[in-house]
């Protein structure tokens, strides 16, 4: 695992943000944005 990646525990909820529309959800591991269907990212993972 990369040191900058957030640890992933499928049983623990995290905050995820949509790459396209910016929707923020609290979930264990969303497949897609509930509003637009785009990819979600864990907000604990830095964008670098």
Automatic annotation (TrEMBL):
Domain DUF7129: 11-43
Superkingdom of the organism of origin: Archaea
InterPro entries: DUF7129
Name of the protein in its database record: DUF7129 domain-containing protein
């Amino acid at each position: 695992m990369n040191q900058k990646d957030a640890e992933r525990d499928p049983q623990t909820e995290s905050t995820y943000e949509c790459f396209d529309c910016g929707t923020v959800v609290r979930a264990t591991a969303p497949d897609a944005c509930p509003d637009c269907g785009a990819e979600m990212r864990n907000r604990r993972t830095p964008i670098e």
